[in-house]
TrEMBL record:
This is HNH nuclease domain-containing protein. Residues 294-303, 447-460 have a biased composition (Basic and acidic residues). Residues 271-318, 447-477 are annotated as: Disordered. Residues 467-477 have a biased composition (Pro residues). Residues 175-265 form the HNH nuclease domain.
């Protein structure tokens, strides 16, 4: 597909250059803009990886580890006790468990495997049960990163225009990926998190502690707590979740695709460099804005060893010395996130060690790559965002938790996120509750068609992936 897209772009560019129409022909402004884009574009670097599924190790190595975990769970009588409960078995066979194993940090997965192979029965059972319990709330993680509640409570929170402008300035007032001047400042972690801090900590991060790892978990909890004293944001306030640390500048088209999790940004490095500032200008006394004219003539005739430069108060000979200014960066790798044929986190893959690359869906209309007037994007596109203040860089951990959520969502088929709406939100919003039921019906129909089952019976089956109580199902007129 990438080759076809490249051929199409080349053909379109060639036709554009041949166009002689006085109203639509290429202008000098167009040429200048293209030159700036070519200069901005970087060579894709996947670091030997095939796609977003390869991480510290290849997908093949990871699947082999998952296969061993699956064999242990099937043959260990102590773990079979846990799987004898229908709820635990359903979780273990679901897409949420499969997707978590495919996206866990490699050291976390190895540690989990190490405990399962130990002789400590209690530790083994505790770890396995903790893993299953951590797989359940991944739906809350996807909801948090993908949905935008608009209750009255969430609408009263004011966005900081000053912090937004700081992010724009850091990103040179352009999309960091395409260099497009048509841009928007986007939040990494959704802005509405400000009104639900405790809820996010309790219902999303706390249950995911086993999967996230203790250090990452504690860092995220700390980030959630960096808020203003009043608990509300005003234009002059600093709040980490409404600061450049939680912002990045994207084109309007990429903003929509990012909200939908169609692509992800993987943080890969924290480089540093020094920028050389121009030396201070040597000024004659009396020419500066704060100089006193009365003493100017006297100082002007001083010998060189008495002359001072601007800002030099030592009285010694002035030297025009360049200043090294430290700059801090974060390097990100761009990935298009292809989705599987599954229909949600409660669907089930063929097996727990199934190869997701054999389950890819073809790219559809939600994967628009038409970046008109901007640099094309390919997997492995590398960018580095720089700032002289490391606190103003996009936060590594906020990007990492978003990167995790988007991969989980796409591996499970990128189903309608309203499938994952918390029950409390449904209780407070009848319209949302109705949409959830409709989303469950659509997902169930897709699963039933794939398995050759009756969708109505599957929808009403408590053991089904998207069970809806019969009294809650909409009646046919």
């Amino acid at each position: 597909m990438a080759m076809k897209a490249g051929m199409f772009s080349y053909k379109a560019l060639r036709n554009k250059l041949k166009n002689s129409d006085p109203f639509t022909r290429v202008t000098k402004c167009d040429v200048d803009m293209c030159e700036s884009f070519f200069k901005f574009r970087t060579h894709p670097d996947m670091a030997g990886r095939v796609d977003y599924l390869d991480n510290t190790v290849t997908l093949g190595e990871r699947r082999e580890k998952i296969r061993r975990i699956l064999n242990i769970a099937r043959n260990d009588r102590h773990l079979q006790i846990i799987l004898s409960y229908d709820a635990n078995k359903k979780t273990f066979e679901s897409a949420r468990c499969w997707a978590v194993l495919l996206t866990m940090q490699w050291d976390q997965l190895q540690a989990f495997y190490g405990i399962l192979t130990s002789q400590d029965v209690t530790a083994k059972q505790d770890a396995f049960l903790s893993f299953l319990q951590a797989c359940i709330p991944v739906t809350n993680l996807v909801w948090w990163m993908s949905e935008t509640p608009t209750t009255r409570k969430e609408q009263v929170w004011a966005r900081s225009e000053r912090q937004r402008n700081e992010a724009l300035k850091r990103d040179n007032f352009r999309c960091v990926l395409t260099n497009s001047a048509i841009r928007e400042v986007c939040h990494i972690v959704p802005f509405w998190t400000l009104s639900r801090r405790m809820e996010i900590q309790r219902d999303v991060l706390q249950p995911l502690r086993f999967v996230l790892g203790l250090e990452f978990f504690h860092r995220l909890m700390g980030l959630m707590n960096q808020q203003t004293e009043r608990g509300t944001t005003e234009p002059s306030d600093f709040d980490l979740l409404d600061s450049p640390a939680n912002m990045i500048t994207l084109s309007n088209k990429l903003h929509k695709l990012w909200d939908d999790g169609v692509f992800g940004l993987e943080p890969i490095a924290r480089p540093q460099k020094s920028d050389t500032l121009a030396p201070p200008t040597l000024e004659k006394p009396g020419t500066g804005p704060s100089a006193v004219k009365r003493g100017a003539d006297t100082v002007e005739h001083q010998p060189p060893h008495k002359m001072v430069t601007k800002g030099n108060k030592t009285g010694k000979e002035g030297k025009l010395v360049s200043v090294e200014k430290p700059m801090y960066g974060i390097t990100l790798r761009f990935h298009w996130l292809q989705k599987t044929t599954l229909v949600g986190l409660d669907d089930s893959p063929p097996t727990l060690d199934a190869d997701p690359r054999s389950m890819w869906q073809d790219w559809d209309h939600d994967n628009v790559r038409d970046n008109e007037h901007a640099t094309p994007l390919d997997n492995g596109h590398i960018i580095t965002i720089w700032s002289d203040d490391k606190e103003k860089l996009p936060n590594w951990d906020l990007l990492s938790v978003q990167w995790l959520a988007f991969r989980l969502h796409r591996l499970s088929g990128a189903a309608d996120v309203e499938l994952y709406a918390p029950q409390k939100d449904q209780d407070d919003d009848e319209a949302l509750a109705a949409r959830v039921i409709q989303a469950k019906r659509q997902a169930t129909e897709a699963i039933a068609e794939r398995r050759g089952l009756d969708p109505d019976r599957l929808l009403a089956d408590p053991r089904g992936p998207y069970y809806v109580p019969p009294d809650a199902q909409p009646r046919a007129d």
